[in-house]
Amino acid sequence: MTTKLVRPSSQPAVSAAVAGALIPQLDRCALLLDIDGTLLDMAPTPREVWVPPELEQTLTKLLVRTSGALALVSGRSINDIDLIFAPMRLPAVGGHGAEMRLSGDGEAVATHAPPLDPDLKSRLAAIARISPGILLEDKGYSLALHYRLAPHTEKAIYESVAAIRAEHPEAPLEVLPGKSVCEIKHAGFTKATGVVELMKHAPFHGRRPVFIGDDVTDETVFAIMPDLDGVAFSVGRDSELTAGRFDEPRDVRDWLAGLLGPTA
Known about the structure:
Layout: H1 14-22, E1 29-33, H2 53-65, E2 70-73, H3 78-85, E3 92-94, E4 99-101, E5 109-110, H4 118-125, E6 135-138, E7 142-146, H5 154-167, E8 173-178, E9 181-186, H6 191-198, E10 208-213, H7 219-224, E11 231-235, E12 244-246, H8 249-259
Parallel strand pairs: 1-2, 1-10, 2-3, 10-11, 11-12
Antiparallel strand pairs: 3-4, 4-5, 6-7, 7-9, 8-9
Organism: Rhodopseudomonas pentothenatexigens
Enzyme class: hydrolase
Family: Belongs to the trehalose phosphatase family.
């Protein structure tokens, strides 16, 4: 597979062109796909995302065509991923790299990522009481404060998190700003560390990773793609670390379907 992939947003026919280049090579690729804002359209709350039936069909076929080397890479826990895509179960890196599953019928395993301190977690969770409309999401290894329904609270949320971090400078906390969300986790693991671990194991080992992501947390994976002889695409925004970009999740879904060819 050539590294000279054209930016999907710059040429109308590029999706078909890239698909045509990849179809004979799917047996050597590992498809790594972010979920929210990449495969699925963003929703007012995390529970309201919707999986189009045609996407389920596409992913199922691609899983076969890649001999199982397709994985979802998300900040969500693997349990949450399974609830969204049920009854389909896919290989996954969940919790920003905190857990991993190598096959759909396998068990999720922790990657030795440290959890948040319970007392700090409780204090951070209390920030959700600043205003109605702030949604608290406990992801197990991280805590997310969603403010899509209360955008006026963004400044107050980040100031509150900063104040708690200042009171506990010894706590290795990492703040992950996202699309209308402030997420806090223990430092030391990322989506990138999860992907590196995933690529050590069959059926991913020895394949060339193709990663697609949309948010700040995906930048860590974009950055390691050259080390893995991989290629990355962003969604909805440009990145110097990617080979190109898609405008929106619908374009990603269409591109993935195109990889299967006209007779799929």
